[in-house]
Amino acid sequence: MKNMHNITSTASAPAPPRRTRPPRVDWASLAPRVASLRAQGCSTRETARRLNMNIKTLEAHLRRHRIRHAIPMDRPDQVRRTCLNCDTAFVADGRFLRLCPECRAMFS
Ligand SMILES: [Zn+2]
Question: How many angstroms does the Cα of residue 34 sit away from the middle of ligand 1?
Answer without folding.
Answer: 18
